[in-house]
Amino acid sequence: MVAKSANYTAATTWVVTLILIKCRPKEHTGEIMQPSGRGYDHGITTFSPDGRLFQVEYARESVKRGTTTAGLKFKEGVVLVCDKRIISRLIIPESIEKMFKIDNHVGVATSGLMADARQLVARARVEAQINRITYGATVPVDVLVKKICDFKQSFTQYGGSRPFGTALLIGGVDDNGIHLYETDPSGAYQSYHAGAIGSGRNTVIEYFEKNWKENLTLNAAMKMGLEALRHANDAELNRDAVEVAVIDSSGYRFLDRDDVNKQIDRLKPLEE
Fold first, then answer.
1. Quick check: is 108 in a domain?
2. What whole-number distance in Å separates Cα of residue 22 and Cα of residue 45?
């Protein structure tokens, strides 16, 4: 028993010695150790040391990879314009949906993951109908926007989920006036006179800042929106890929192909 105890003590001492050697601090080499961000993007609920939620930022990158979508107010309502990515002549352009009617007075244009956008559109339609059944009136645009953004935010706060990889431009007209909102994958939202989402957002916003003004006519607003899209693409518009929707006191209406082409014909050719 004494021999076994001695052997156990010796083995324990040897293991402890190895651990101490491994844990001994290395000599200072003059290099500054930087905190690693690795691992903070694995979970949606984990903040990085500098206060970032990487999964939300990745969702925003998904929006930036989407095609350009723009919206602007005019004297009587809101115009939404979008550019669809048609990568093959075999694709039927009408099968790609980027604009949706939520209620008679509200419309949505999207950029990013379209599958995610469809889920948010379905949710918005349900909320609009709940308000109509409960109160016997159409839902105020700002109330609808807040409900959708609260829903989006909930997917940034709990484990086992991911943010929606899409942004929405929500336009509408109600008793409180004319509204245009831009929503973010984080659940944040802002109201704009003219806004844009997608890959060409910065170019479109720069164009609107220079040219948008209050009390535009409908034709002027549609022309400005299409011109902004063309600036973002830096090329003539693909007539099969461009869509336009209008929301005003008459309700939501989606322009057919002939009407869109008439508006495109009003644009001056790009300078070579």
1. yes
2. 34
Residues for the chain: how many in total? Answer: 272
Tell me the H-state helices in the chain: 2-23, 54-64, 114-135, 141-154, 201-211, 218-233, 257-265
- The one-letter code for the residue type at 205 is I
Q: Would you call 94 exposed, middle or buried from its count of C-beta atoms within 10 A (0-12, 13-18, 19+)?
A: exposed
* Phi and psi, residue 88, nearest 5°: -150, 145
CATH number, domain with residue 106 = 3.60.20.10
Report how many domains make up the chain.
Answer: 1
Structural domain boundaries, residue 92: 54-265
Q: What six digits make up the tokens of 94? A: 């009408």
CA 19 to chain centroid: 51
Write out pLDDT tens, residues 123-167: 999 999 999 999 999 999 999 999 999 999 988 887 778 889 999
Q: Comparing C-alpha atoms, which of 186, 188, 170 is closest to residue 178?
A: 170
Establish if 172 belongs to a structural domain. yes
Residue 10 lies in a domain: no
**Within a domain: 59:** yes
pTM here is 0.81
Asked if 194 and 180 touch (Cβ cutoff 8 Å), the reply is yes
The pair phi, psi for residue 216, each rounded to 5°, is -65, 150
User: Is 120 in a helix, a strand, or coil?
Assistant: helix
* Amino acid found at 140: P
